[in-house]
């Protein structure tokens, strides 16, 4: 049974570079036999959080929210591709995740960060680790950190140069870590329902 993995990307900028990393991850997970789906926060375009999905009457949530809730509940695992804004997380991605809570529970998540500079978004990645844990996900210990993004991946999401070579070498361990936790969580849910 292939792993159903949602890959979340959150930049709303016109000249966004992180989509290259999201595309690279989707292609890499597909090549390993998983079924990834890119969820682009800009394309989903949820409003600024006023009411969480669970706060709507059953069947009364806006269509985009209802659709995304169903995809999250059906997923085996999640990947969060995050840029770093002023040492923090991207507001678009944070806004999207905050619309949900219980839908995330009891599944693993992996983080891939990027930036235009040499710090590779690691401060945002570190912040996401605690956010995702608080939201009920098990965050795998392996991370991908990519920077400078423009020198690592071309416009088609293909690795370039020495930095791209480093990313290609790091990806298998990161993907193996996510796959192990994904399969472990699926096996556990098959024998025992989550406690809450």
Shape: globular
Strand content: 15-25%
Low-confidence stretches: none
**How much is the average pLDDT?**
96
The helix/strand series, from N terminus to C terminus, equals EHEHHEHEHEHH
Give helix % range: 40-55%
Distance between the termini: 25 Å
Radius of gyration computed on alpha carbons? 16 Å
**Mind describing the biggest β-sheet?**
5 strands, parallel
SSE-based structural type: alpha/beta
Number of strands: 5
How many helices? The count is 7
- Neighbour order of strands in the largest sheet: 2-1-3-4-5
Give a description of the structure:
It is a single chain. This protein is an alpha/beta fold and 196 residues long. Helix content is 43%, strand content 18%. It contains 7 helices and 5 strands; from the N terminus they run βαβααβαβαβαα. A 5-stranded parallel β-sheet has the order 2-1-3-4-5, sandwiched between helices. Strand 1 (4-9), helix 1 and strand 2 form a beta-alpha-beta unit. The two termini are 25 Å apart. The model has no long low-confidence stretch (mean pLDDT 96).
């Amino acid at each position: 049974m292939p792993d159903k993995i949602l890959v979340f990307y959150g930049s709303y900028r016109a000249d966004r570079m992180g989509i290259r990393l999201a595309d690279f991850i989707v292609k890499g997970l597909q090549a390993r036999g998983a079924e990834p789906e890119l969820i682009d926060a800009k394309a989903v375009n949820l409003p600024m959080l006023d009411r969480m999905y669970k706060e709507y009457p059953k069947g009364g949530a806006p269509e985009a929210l209802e659709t995304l809730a169903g995809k999250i509940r059906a997923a085996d695992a999640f990947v969060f591709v995050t840029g770093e804004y002023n040492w923090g997380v991207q507001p678009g991605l944070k806004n999207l995740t905050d619309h949900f809570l219980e839908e995330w529970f009891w599944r693993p998540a992996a983080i891939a960060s990027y930036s235009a500079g040499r710090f590779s978004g690691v401060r945002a990645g570190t912040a996401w680790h605690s956010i995702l844990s608080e939201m009920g996900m098990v965050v795998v210990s392996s991370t991908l950190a990519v920077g400078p993004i423009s020198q690592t991946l071309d416009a088609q999401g293909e690795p370039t140069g020495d930095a791209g070579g480093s990313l290609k070498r790091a990806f298998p361990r990161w993907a193996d870590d996510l796959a192990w936790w994904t399969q472990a969580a699926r096996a556990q849910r098959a024998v025992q329902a989550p406690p809450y």
